[in-house]
Design goal:
Radius of gyration: 33 Å
Number of domains: 1
Helix content: 40-55%
Shape: elongated
Largest sheet: 2 strands, antiparallel
Strand content: 5-15%
Structural class: mainly alpha
Strand order of the largest sheet: 1-2
């Protein structure tokens, strides 16, 4: 059975691909990527194919390893900008967008910088939308008639004291104080 790699265009039997160490390791890395990246990675790797020749498995292995490192960080960095959270879904969309725009790209791609830029722009937009949703969420207002809950452990004692001495003139009776102190001993 002959198989054609959609990424590099290589034609070979399934057995020969499994026997090639670089091919096996490349496919293993791609299969470990979180969904939906395994489906989009081979197409993205085709952007690195030199002209009408096939992409070598050794180079494909290096590129797949670099993609794995980028994706596993869970963020994307672009020089001079704040890092953005970047999910596997965003990385996959960025790869798909690049493959769709292949005619407008300068191929073969030399590195992953343009992928990082596309993913960064998508992650930036996603962060902006998330911030807008948070700001649009209704604000819960506290009614002024609601009792204020205190986390002060002495607040209950003070409240009981105030209730017990509500009719007093505000002066402390020494006999009461002596009883309180003796009770603490």
């Amino acid at each position: 059975m002959k198989l054609i790699c959609p990424g590099c265009g290589a034609i070979a039997s399934a057995e020969s691909w499994v026997n090639d160490v670089h091919c096996r390791e490349t496919l293993l890395i791609i299969s470990r990527l979180p969904a939906p990246l395994p489906k989009t990675t081979l197409g993205y790797l085709s952007l690195f194919r030199p002209g009408q020749r096939a992409l070598g498995w050794k180079k494909a292995l290096r590129l797949a390893g670099e993609i794995e490192q980028l994706v596993c960080k869970n963020f994307v960095s672009v020089k001079g900008k704040v890092d953005r959270r970047c999910s596997p879904r965003i990385w996959a969309k960025a790869m798909e967008q690049m493959v769709e725009q292949r005619d407008g790209l300068d191929l073969p791609m030399p590195n992953h910088r343009y992928l990082k830029k596309v993913a960064y722009d998508m992650a930036d937009k996603a962060d902006y939308k998330q911030e807008q949703r948070q700001h649009a969420a209704p604000v819960r207002r506290v009614r002024t008639s609601d009792p204020v809950v205190s986390h002060d452990p002495l607040a209950k004692i003070k409240e009981e004291w105030d209730k017990a001495h509500q009719g007093d003139d505000g002066k402390l009776d020494l006999t009461e104080l002596t009883g309180v102190v003796k009770g603490m001993e």
